[in-house]
Amino acid sequence: ICDVNSNRVQGSTGKADWFDLSKHERKELREFYRIKSPNISQQIYSELDSFLSDQPDTTPLAASFPAQPRFSTDDAQPSGNSSVFGDNETDTSADRHNTGRKNNKRKRSDKYEKLREVLDQRSEATLAQARLLHDEELTQRRQQHVEHMKLMRAFLDKF
After folding, report:
1. For 67-93, how does the pLDDT look when each residue is reduced to its tens digit (9 = 90+)?
2. CB of 9 within 8 A of CB of 16?
3. Which of 38, 48, 127, 132 is least surrounded by Cβ atoms within 10 Å, i.e. has the fewest?
4. Residue 93 carries which DSSP code?
5. Rounded to whole angstroms, how far apart are CA atoms 119 and 111?
6. pLDDT, tens only, 101-159
7. What is each CA distance from 37 to 32, 40, 42, 71, in whole angstroms?
8. How far is CA 48 from CA 12, 36, 38, 41, 53, in A?
């Protein structure tokens, strides 16, 4: 065993006992120190299984009001081949830019821009608050300085 300067640590033989062992002895040591599963009877396994899967400990609550959709089912169903804006999505003859082909390029998400905006807003708010605190501290120091100077003048006028 060596230290950081490649010097042998005092008391080290330079070779671990592990390498002196035969393959069979190493295998026995590995098996001895390997974590074994505990010996649990089949009855305990079946009880755990029934507890975790067969017998749920929660029962559904009775509804206090009848469940109804918030909108009519006619509005929920899309109407044929019309799109959101009422134009035909499959007809691309009037649109010069829509060739009808899908662009399979991976698009960069705007989550980083959103994060940048949030961070900018928060940093602006933090800076504004820091400026406010700094201005308040400066006005307090100026007021203390004015009071201190008044006291000094009054003290010097006495002499």
Report:
1. 666 666 665 555 555 555 556 666 656
2. no
3. 38
4. S
5. 12
6. 666 677 777 888 888 899 999 888 899 999 999 999 999 999 999 999 999 999 888 87
7. 13, 9, 14, 55
8. 50, 20, 15, 11, 8
